[in-house]
TrEMBL record, chain A:
Residues 28-110 form the YCII-related domain. Signal peptide: none annotated. SUPFAM superfamilies: Dimeric alpha+beta barrel. This is YCII-related domain-containing protein. Gene3D superfamilies: Dimeric alpha+beta barrel (3.30.70.1060). InterPro entries: Dimeric_a/b-barrel, YCII. Belongs to the YciI family. Pfam families: YCII (PF03795). The lineage of its organism: Bacteria, Bacillati, Actinomycetota, Actinomycetes, Propionibacteriales.
Amino acid sequence: MAKYLLLKHYRGAPDPVNNVPMDQWSPQEITDHIQFMRDFATRLESTGEFVDAQALSPEGSWVQYGGEGRPPVTDGPFAETKDLIAGWMIIDVDTHDRAVELAAQLSAAPGAGGRPIHEWLEVRPFMHEPPAVTE
Amino acid sequence: MSSEAPGVDEALLRSLIPATIGVLVRRGADFAAAEDAVQESLLEAMRVWPDDPPRDPKPWLVTVAWRKFIDATRSETARRRREEQVESEPGPEAGPALDDTLQLYFLCAHPSLTPASAVALTLRAVGGLTTRQIAEAYLVPEATMGQRISRAKRTVADVRFDRAGDVATVLRVLYLVFNEGYSGDVDLAAEAIRLTRQLAERIDHPEVSGLLALMLLHHARRPARTRPDGTLVPLAEQDRTRWDTRLIAEGIAILQQALTHDRLGEFQAQAAIAALHADARRAEETDWVQIVEWYDELVRMTESPIARLNRAVAVGEADGAPAGLAALAGLGPALPRFGAVSAYLHERAGDLRIAARLYAEAARAATNTAERDHLTLQAARLNATLPVED
């Protein structure tokens, strides 16, 4: 098994096909979308592949050590052009192909008009522990 | 203790924990060691009681916990002077000036602890939850929670166990636990109610009763507060037949009793507001005028901007949306939920386009997904009725 991070972006990813802001959808389309996401996570739990899912607030700032005896340096809020992570799902799957397959399913979540969003998701393998047997 | 052993009254067992720790402390054990020993004795009770239930659970628990403590102390090195103190038969217990259980509440909410530490320590030492359960409830690794509890125990190690602490700090801790709701297999709201109930049995204090009433009245609404898909149902739209009338009746009775003391505090005022909502069988029957009066009290007592924000909603219902919007004066977007309240009042005032924009902004500023989804839905609901802007 190998863990993968499926990363969703507020900004910074290429535009999806069905690119309508969520507050312009109909209430029913929003409800359907939420249900899809819940069902997706539940299904992964039942297949033993779900690890974690979290959403991040769009608020945030850069922080840097300010030097001895000085307060931290902060810079924010994020510039409009900055790549902005919206949240993630972590899965534990047998193969890279399976990780891609699941990411594609997630990207098909319904959006405006009930049509798939075709959202771009970033799939990143975790670094893992070195194997016990090395030769 | 998530795996319930058959034949063991877990509620009874857990209610005995604080007093048992108290006995050990008064016999000379330090708090951290006493707490560990009592946790061990609980595990033994879960193991032994199903086949061999004790005639009197409390002395059984005290005896076993004391033995565990002695064993643990012995197994540490003799260098520790502690051993000499406790090796000999325990001397006569110094008569408790205060109830042991109560002392433990004060200790675990001691002002030297951070809120997160006080919460963890209270759940473990007063509530008898295992470190694993507390860790799961707060979604942190068990080792992290274990360290948090150990550090908290060290922080209060030198606090004297024989004088009353500040009830207000205890109430703040219990309120925090209640507000955490429930995740994992531990229902923290139910646990907070149990602990507050246990506290109210030991101390006659109107704010303790006020907090208990507040918790019961809010807990009563929980079945109606979310849809099966996890989205929030606002108060006005909740199916009130799903409110728990038994909890409401109990909460109101406790509140009324507390109010007779004529020592008003913020929890009593909040409970009174919750009780007025509970009294209305339909949302339209809500006595908003009285609710505004209670918010006036709350603002006067706390000067809290959150109370003023909620008051603005009530004013909007009692005197109309423009009055509600006027009541927002002096409050700003930095305040959590300001955007949501402002959107709601604008919608009531008929400014649908502004309201839709404010709902969408509030959704982006939301700090939890349930609220974010709810606010996005409100924006979408209004946008669906508005002609498209060019």
